[in-house]
Amino acid sequence: MPLRVKWFLSASVGMMLVGYGLCVFSEAGHLKHTNAPFLRWFLLGTYSLIMVNSGLALFGQAVIFRMRIENRKMIKNILKDRDKKYKKTLTITRIEPPKTEV
User: Fold this and answer.
1) Within 10 A of 37 (CB to CB), how many other CB atoms are there?
2) pLDDT, tens digit, for every residue of 49-66?
3) What does the alpha-carbon distance between residue 32 and residue 39 come to, in Å, rounded to a whole number?
4) Structural domain boundaries of the chain?
């Protein structure tokens, strides 16, 4: 899978998981304050924290993928500029025949 696709998918899914986890966390907080059974809001809150942390981890991986993409672009441009520089300085314009002594 290309790096750009990995970046796009992990960034998108990561942000969705963070949003979903925060919504579930809000619901768990609401259940706690409405005197719902302990196990219900505790498990829902734990699930929401797992979702938020998973989303943050995926988004962090997306940042790593994006940096790899940018580094590849930068290295490619540096190598291209270096090749242009050396092609200009190393070209031979004319070959002169050897001089003979009389």
Assistant:
1) 9
2) 999 999 999 999 999 999
3) 10
4) 3-89
